[in-house]
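Help needed: design a sequence for this.
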């Protein structure tokens, strides 16, 4: 028997009959039509009408001149990062990355796919701490990073959980230092941001921008991603690289390293069926966020914040952060966590266990990159400067590390757009019981 279900605090609660997912695909029917159409007309490869259409429709929706359909968001991020590397430092040898010997400032609290391309291109990621206002890259920490590493010319920035970061401030700092921006809008498709007084979409805020149609995103193609830009030359280059870098010759002729990263016309068929429902999915996610917010208002927690004046998130994931004084003792190792329940207190691990026991899927906050074993030796910059080695045996440091704090106290709630109001209330009740 599950120990949560035996716990008196949860007495009277019944598990959800059907599993509630964190964020699962929602098909509407037209997806099948466009996939069938591709098969019927035999356009079952990486060319076809579905690809042409989704590129056109997404470019229009986002407000960019060019969209290039790719296999995944990760491949879009790789080619965006490579493009930036090549623009800054020139073409690399076939066996070397374009960022060799160069540092890149990177969002720290994000999914690793945002920033792994820096390593694919042989660059060194320098992680920039997070700010509490939006849970995204801290402009203050970014300024500090330029003080410490003034030669850096590239910034990779993500919008976590569909909440736009402080893009104008980051752009201003980038311009001051002549740096390019790769924008990772994988989680924030359809989120809006007031840039220099005008509402624009995320996916327009960098020099090279990326979105994802992964199965858990606000709309999906089962997979798929896109590279977005206003620069024709950049779009053409990404198109070329993504299809093995063929030159204009009768035979396979190659002057550059290529990739097999192009979107499939079948995947594009699913996306084509989903695009008309993007705004509806966002509205559903927003309603879930708002209901959670109302439901937890008397609990010692806060929802993931956003700047209501300058941004309209797509509310991809609803998250919580537990007030410090309501945290029960807890320790996380590399792969496991323990906690000790205390009256009136809880912690992410307990809430996630309780949700799982009642058949609902939550998730810890994305573990910050500077805490990941693979990147543990990479520099990490906070609003105070160097975030590594902040104290010594005799002098205590301030220990400011916003990402680590949000990771410790935060969690992602079930945010499936098909959740009913009753299911949201059920999740809130489980959380409430955790704090009893
Ligand atoms: C922030 C972020 N960047 C990049 C990706 C990678 O996208 P994909 O799974 O389409 O490769 C994801 C999610 O999957 C993501 O959440």
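Sure. Designed sequence:
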């Amino acid at each position: 028997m599950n120990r949560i279900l035996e716990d008196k605090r949860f007495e009277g609660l019944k598990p959800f009959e059907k599993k509630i997912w964190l964020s699962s695909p929602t098909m509407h029917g037209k997806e099948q039509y466009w996939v069938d159409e591709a098969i019927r007309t035999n356009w079952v490869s990486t060319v076809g009408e579905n690809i042409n259409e989704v590129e056109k429709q997404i470019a229009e929706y986002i407000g960019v001149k060019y969209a290039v359909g790719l296999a995944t968001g990760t491949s879009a991020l790789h080619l965006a990062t490579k493009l930036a590397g090549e623009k800054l430092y020139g073409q690399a040898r076939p066996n070397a990355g374009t960022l060799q010997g160069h540092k890149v400032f990177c969002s720290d609290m994000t999914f690793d796919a945002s920033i792994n391309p820096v390593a694919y291109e042989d660059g060194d990621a320098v992680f920039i701490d997070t700010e509490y206002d939006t849970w995204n890259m801290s402009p203050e920490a970014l300024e500090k990073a330029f003080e410490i590493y003034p030669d850096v010319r590239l910034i990779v920035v993500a919008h976590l959980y569909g909440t736009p970061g402080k893009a104008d401030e980051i752009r201003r700092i980038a311009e001051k230092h002549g740096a390019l921006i790769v924008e990772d809008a994988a989680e924030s498709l359809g989120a809006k941001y007031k840039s220099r007084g005008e509402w624009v979409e995320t996916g327009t805020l960098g020099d090279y921008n990326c979105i994802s149609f992964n199965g858990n995103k606000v709309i999906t193609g089962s997979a798929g991603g896109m590279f977005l830009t206003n620069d024709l030359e950049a779009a053409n280059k990404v198109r070329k690289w993504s299809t093995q870098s063929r030159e204009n010759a009768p035979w396979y002729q190659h002057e550059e390293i290529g990739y097999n990263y192009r979107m499939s016309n079948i995947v594009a068929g699913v996306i084509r069926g989903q695009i008309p429902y993007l705004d509806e999915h966002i509205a559903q996610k927003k309603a879930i966020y708002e209901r959670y917010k109302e439901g937890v208002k008397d609990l010692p927690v806060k929802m993931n914040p956003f700047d209501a004046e300058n941004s309209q998130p797509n509310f991809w994931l609803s998250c919580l952060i537990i007030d410090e004084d309501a945290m029960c003792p807890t320790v996380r190792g590399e792969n496991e966590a323990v906690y000790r329940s205390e009256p009136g207190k809880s912690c992410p691990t307990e809430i996630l266990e309780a949700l799982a026991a009642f058949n609902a899927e939550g998730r810890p906050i994305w573990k910050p990159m500077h805490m990941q074993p693979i990147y543990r030796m990479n520099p990490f910059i906070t609003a105070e400067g160097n975030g590594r080695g902040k104290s010594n045996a005799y002098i205590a440091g301030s220990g400011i590390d916003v990402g680590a704090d949000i990771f410790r106290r935060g969690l992602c709630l079930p945010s499936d757009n098909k959740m009913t109001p009753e299911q949201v209330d059920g999740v809130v009740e489980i959380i409430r019981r955790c704090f009893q």
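The chain has two domains: 3-24+278-434, 30-275.
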